[in-house]
Design goal:
three-stranded antiparallel beta sheet; 5 strands; mainly alpha; two-stranded antiparallel ribbon; hpI Integrase, Chain A
Length: 250
């Protein structure tokens, strides 16, 4: 590609870069743009949802749904990954902040795992959940296979089963209808995944780190998730100008 101009001048052949084709995301028919709510609206949603917990008819399931969706807005796990989480998937001593092991399936059904750092306030959220509300379901937290986000349904041994994806999606829909009515039908758990990517990018995380956090194979899939604010280009231009000026001013 560096010699594209010379090759074209000598042979008349315009060399095409193969990278875009190799790196294209699969299933492009489903890659429609999902614009997440702005940070102010997401804060309003979870503030109102948190206030509702004290008067909830079923406190434990309400807090569970709130915690799962809040985690999605902080570090971007898929709703299916949230439902598969077990208590022992949280490794408090790994890295600087601790890490959580997320498990899921790829587009072709293959199993995928990744360790995600508990950044952006996610560690404090999970510590609060496990030290208090999680015990409302059962007392089997130390056992292997204990779900991080349990259901009210129990197995024959009296242990809670895993929460379903429909329960989390339904709770999110109800919260959005109460606190962000103009986002009904658009603010979903998957939109929170888009929000997490955009918010972390806006905080200064580079796109490669966002890619690893979300578990994307292709970086141009990640770029679909990163939505910049209206002044991002202007802010980047000003920042670049300041860096250039600093070279001359010391």
């Amino acid at each position: 590609m560096r010699h594209q101009a010379d090759i074209h001048a000598a042979t008349g052949v315009l060399v095409q870069c193969p990278v875009d084709e190799i790196n294209r995301p699969r299933g492009s028919t489903n890659m429609r743009v999902r614009i997440p709510p702005p940070a102010a609206d997401v804060d309003r949603l979870f503030a109102g949802w948190c206030d509702d917990l004290h008067a909830a008819r079923k406190y434990a399931p309400s807090v569970r749904n709130y915690t799962a969706c809040r985690l999605a807005s902080l570090i971007g796990p898929r709703v299916s990954e949230l439902c598969l989480l077990e208590v022992h998937d949280i490794h408090w001593d790994l890295g600087t902040f601790g890490k959580v092991l997320l498990r899921g399936k790829g587009s072709r059904g293959q199993k995928k795992e990744r360790l995600v750092p508990l950044i952006n306030g996610s560690r404090a959220l999970l510590e609060w959940w496990l030290q208090g509300p999680r015990w409302e379901f059962d007392d089997h937290l130390d056992e292997r296979g204990a779900p991080l986000f349990p259901s009210e349904r129990r197995d024959r041994g009296g242990r809670c089963k895993r929460v379903s994806t429909s329960a989390i999606r339904g709770a999110m829909g109800e919260a959005v209808q109460r606190h962000l009515p103009r986002w009904v039908g658009r603010a979903t758990p998957h939109a929170l995944r888009h929000f997490a990517a955009s918010d972390l990018y806006a905080q200064g995380m580079n796109v490669v780190a966002v890619q690893e956090l979300l578990g994307h194979r292709w970086i141009n899939t990640t770029m679909i998730y990163v939505h910049v604010n209206k002044t991002h280009i202007e802010d980047a231009w000003i920042s670049a100008g300041q860096r250039v000026a600093s070279r001359f001013t010391g």
